[in-house]
Amino acid sequence: MDSEKQNELVTIFIISDSAGETASKLAQASMAQYPTVEFCLFRRTFVHTEELLMKALNDAKSENGMIIYTLINPKLAKIAKEFCDNEDLFTMDLLNPVVSEIGRRAHLEPTGERGALHHLNENYFKRIKAMEFAVKYDDGKDPRGFLEADIVLLGVSRTSKTPLSLYLANKNLKVANLPLIPQAHIPKQLFEIDPKKIVGLTNDPEVLIGIRKERMRAYGLNPETAYSDRDKIQAELKFANDLYHKLGCEIINVATLSIEETAAMIMSALDLEDHSYYFMEEES
């Protein structure tokens, strides 16, 4: 394959009758497998009329785009499929095959409601409460939050405690976190909770040095300070690891992990499920 073809722009169109997040995630996961390829991603969301759909499809045709769609309306989904077949465009119906199979197994018809995943239902408001909890108990503001939390994150500065807390809150999990500083007071509540819900975050010294220097530069400050000093960082990490072993908690090194990967490892280690999309109601 010649270099010109290797560097050809790949265009993907997301067409959805709602926010398009489901199809976008699939597209992004696929794109990540080709870090050297240049992509152009178009999103056509809240497409709920034939006129809007035809405009989106013709736009995709003009760009020779791949089309990934989530259209719950059978008529619109059929139009999209027939258009792509006739124009020889790659297409993937990400929603209806699974919806149809669920209906076949459950002996029910789907509601056909657009954006049903994003209902402002009880589950949604639980997620909002979990996010409020993460903000309230961020950075050890109130150690009493440890007693109510589903997960307690510990770590030295710049181990992604706050982003992880908010990401996990989006999965309806209540998360509190505590920054660790050598010789600092450790709240008694930390020793009163089940260590199986505590996660100690650590990092490689070299990675931490780089992150902290960049942090200082972002504030317009001198990066060569005690905050990024190698000996100080190694002392912080030793203090943290000694505490983790004393608590008997799970330890995760985040040096090479994304927020999503770290969150997945935390949920697996603590045997927790993503509760953000549960629709099953308990019987009283």
From TrEMBL:
ADP binds at residues 155-162. The keyword Nucleotide-binding applies. It comes from the Bacteria. Its EC number is 2.7.11.32, 2.7.4.27. InterPro entries: Kinase-pyrophosphorylase (IPR005177), PPDK_reg (IPR026565). It catalyses: N(tele)-phospho-L-histidyl/L-threonyl-[pyruvate, phosphate dikinase] + ADP = N(tele)-phospho-L-histidyl/O-phospho-L-threonyl-[pyruvate, phosphate dikinase] + AMP + H(+); N(tele)-phospho-L-histidyl/O-phospho-L-threonyl-[pyruvate, phosphate dikinase] + phosphate + H(+) = N(tele)-phospho-L-histidyl/L-threonyl-[pyruvate, phosphate dikinase] + diphosphate. Keywords: Kinase, Nucleotide-binding, Serine/threonine-protein kinase, Transferase. One of its GO terms (molecular function) is kinase activity. Belongs to the pyruvate, phosphate/water dikinase regulatory protein family. PDRP subfamily. Bifunctional serine/threonine kinase and phosphorylase involved in the regulation of the pyruvate, phosphate dikinase (PPDK) by catalyzing its phosphorylation/dephosphorylation. This is Putative pyruvate, phosphate dikinase regulatory protein. It comes from Enterococcus hulanensis.
